[in-house]
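Entries read sequence, tokenised fold; example below:

***
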Amino acid sequence: MSYKLLDKGRKFLSSGEWEKAREILEKALIEKESPEIYEELAWACWWLNDASGVFEIRTKAFNLYFQNDDKLGAARNACWIGVDYIEFRGEFAVASGWFKRAENLLEGLTPSSELSMFKILKARWAFQVDKNSELAFKLLDESLQISRSLKNVDGEMLAGALKGFILVVEGKISEGMPLLDEATLIATTSDKTDLNFTTITCCYLIDACERIRDYERASQWCNNVKEICNRWKYKAMFANCRMKHAGILIWKGDWKEAEDELQLAANELQKFRPVQVNACTVRLADLKRRQGKWNEAEYLLNKVDTHPLKQLYFAFLYFDRKEYKKALEVAERYLRKFPPSEKTERTVALELLIKINVKLGEADRAQGLFEELKNTVLSINTLPLKAALLNSEGIINSAEDKYERARQKFEDAIDIFDKIYLNFESARTRLELSETLIKLNQIAQAEAELTAAMKTFKELGAAKDFEKVKLLLKNLYKDKADEIDKNKFEFTGRELEVLRLIAEGKTNEEISEKLFLSVRTVEKHLTNIYSKLGVSGKSARAYAASYAIKHKLTFT
């Protein structure tokens, strides 16, 4: 009878009815204890986020398998107990002990799904903890070989995903992404894959996309995984995806939605996976930094005991505060944690360190860092990273007084940032460009770039940056009052009409209708206006409008 209840419990687990599964399996235990029932009951508790139940019941399953000399069953549960200690409690030392027990139990046994799984876990440990990717690849290849020989879809999928992820981290995009694509395809189309393995596989792809800044793709997969988790009531992973999605929203400038997602994710993780709340907190701290709420950002970062991003986000905060020596120390400490082989882990810190070293007058050091960044970006070849590289090159060119080259690099970076809607990065690059334009004595164009940046910062809610640009604009002509008074351009009557309508926010088509002109004629007038104002590019129209309002130009 207990085995009939066990089968019934397994059916409820396979259909995502976790409460019913626990109820049936608890009844089965009353009739007769068995390691199989304990093992399935532990999974019901796991899906219901009952951490204490998971540890107690999974340990009982392990002990019974061990007493029955079922080494595969004992090893399987030892592996998962190790994972539980990491996920629920963040206790890596205890987890290592359980993984070692699994290894001893599997020694000398024929290849099995359990051995394949153990090798995946050992590979992840080798890569993330021991920083030994060579050993990780060896273990994953062995795991893949075992899974393929046993036709174990879950094992093959997960090992392929982890291998692809490590390759991406090392900057080997052309090798890593196809493996991730294949694994994710299996995860989302096969009806034979384990739900937990499916979501982990998808998360490896999302993490890889984040590292190479393929935000659109990462966002799409976040939504897919959230849908799967919602359907199966996988609350912990749903919260995890919320957090990752929030990180993408921050980059894309959807800060209000990002903050809401992080708050919701933190509340959910506090219930189900409290050790993972730190990941939400550091991301929220960086959002507060971007918003110019520096004290809140510092408070949140100090709340975090340990997290890989804590040092990096502190370095960004110090940089924004112009505490460049502090920023240098913390950013270099962060960078030292990642060997040169982990290329995508180093890119953000490299960008920041280039800026810091330029501010400190260390141009040679900045150039060396730029060369490493350049090699990584060329191997990854995504638009956000291309723009970041151009921005870094512009900063170095400007420091070397190569202002014309710097101007071109900044403009090219802005064009890419605008194309992919990374508005915060675009606006900050406009600040760099405006300083270069001032050095080139192109004051009107500098004003246009600052005006465009100020508009973006206001829309985003970046208070400190907004105030900074406002002050720069106020002081731009501070010592040139007489020049401003004489700064009257010889606009024709028609050009004045066009200028006034631009100031009212009219489009070219609306202006053509209002003045009974063709759109092409309006565009010709605009070209003449921009030429007289000495501006060009995407910000020219905004400058022309602000100029018309500022100088109270009227029809003649």
Summary: The CA atoms of residues 173 and 380 lie 6 Å apart. The longest helix spans residues 71-89.
